[in-house]
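Sample intake sheet
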Amino acid sequence: MPQPTFETLLYSLDEGIATITLNRPERLNAFTSQMMSDLIAAFDHTDGDDAVMAVIVTGAGRGFCAGADLSAGGATFDYDRSTDPARVDTRVAGVHRDGGGRVTLRIFESLKPVIAAINGPAVGIGVTMQLAMDIRLASTEARFGFVFARRGITPEAASSWFLPRLVGIQTALEWCYTGRVFAAQEALDKGLVRSLHAPGDLLAAARALAREIVDNTAPVSVALTRQMIWRMAGADQPMQAHQADSRAIQSRGGSADAREGVTSFLEKRSAHYPNQVSKDLPDIWPHWQAREFS
């Protein structure tokens, strides 16, 4: 599959690992509507390319993402007066869809595991976009901030759903109430990130984790597992998980991947899984459809 190009991102694919790099380093990779569109398109591409088995997201230069681009000044968040087609064209019943939320909902739907390599400052949408990613590794020089109340706005990017599930309600509220920027060590202590790394070691650590996934697991099983765990975070009761589990294990149990997984284990060799996400992903849960904004 031809590799895509984007206005605000760099994209590369190396031995099953796609790397998406936010690429506005002169603006600390500040988020724009074009970056929103590019990120959505990038995840459309990674889902559709069976050569991609894991995704890493990082930033160019010394920042991950400094939040929304504020070049419009005080009118930056005045969506009602915006002439930006990315905002106007997504208005439903008089409400403009939040661009950050469109990104996190797309990442939420990803069929490939997503690893964030947070190389520097990450505030506003720069931190909330990470919440829908699966595993977050950070540089010791990274900084985080849910700064919305200090800008007179509110949390976005569906972070009111994601953040408490990651760090608990108390920490989520403290970070959002104060809007303060905090160090990578606090992010680690509170469970926002999985590990800290020297700046020069960060991407290598992210790639090593992605490599472990790519080299040892069945892509269809990983795609199902990702969706099962994320979606069950909002389930009303465990019976919903049991229903999804039952459909998944029945579907996967008779697959060529399952035969290969067991046979390779018994033969003490590496597995070579034949099934592909684009062709062999079963529909195990009737509600697994993107919900329209209304």
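Comment: Residues 7 and 38 are 7 Å apart (CA to CA). The chain has two domains: 9-213, 218-280.
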